[in-house]
């Protein structure tokens, strides 16, 4: 359960203000079919984070526990510091929009999530906890918890929560996870 709760919290915080959340806002403004957008986000995230968690679990098999502790701990701190850098608004590839809300969301969200902070976090969490199912379930839930509201009431939320505050909170969370990992401790929620 620790992998599930830690993944949910870490990914939810990292996703706020992220480029994929901005993409969800764009898609919600473009398409009226909100449920199709949410389904596309869910499936794209599930696929992306499942592959990421498998990679993290696989990598952990080849490294000693001490080496994994250092790699994961330092990586958590690096991701935390990376979160302080605001995402640039990428131009959405409009050629996918002609395929409708679900297909456009599925493709664009999957592509946007590649190399994203939440994908890297999922790899690291899976390596740390060695629990693919718990990490995938938690990371997908965390992403959906903060992305679904954006689809419905995004503009209002983005005006009320300063992106800088969210980036700092996420940075602190990941740095704490890194320090706890390096010290041999865990995070209990």
Q: Between the first and last Cα atoms, what is the distance in angstroms? A: 9 Å
- The pLDDT mean sits at 80
Strand % is under 5%
pLDDT < 50 runs, ≥5 residues: none
The figure for the number of domains is: 1
Rg, nearest Å: 16 Å
Report the sheet with the most strands, covering strand number, pairing sense and barrel closure.
none
Number of helices: 8
Order of helices and strands: HHHHHHHH
Structural class: mainly alpha
Q: Roughly what percent helix?
A: over 70%
Strand elements, count: 0
Sum up the overall morphology in one term: globular
GO molecular function, one term: metal ion transmembrane transporter activity
Pfam family, one: GDT1
GO cellular component, one term: membrane
Subcellular location: Membrane
Report what the structure shows.
The chain is mainly α and 189 residues long. It has one domain. Helices cover 78% and strands 0% of the residues. The protein has helices at 2-15, 19-30, 34-61, 65-82, 101-113, 117-129, 132-160, 163-182. Helix 1 (2-15) packs parallel to helix 7, helix 3 (34-61) crosses helix 7 and helix 4 packs antiparallel against helix 6 (117-129). The longest helix has 29 residues, at 132-160.
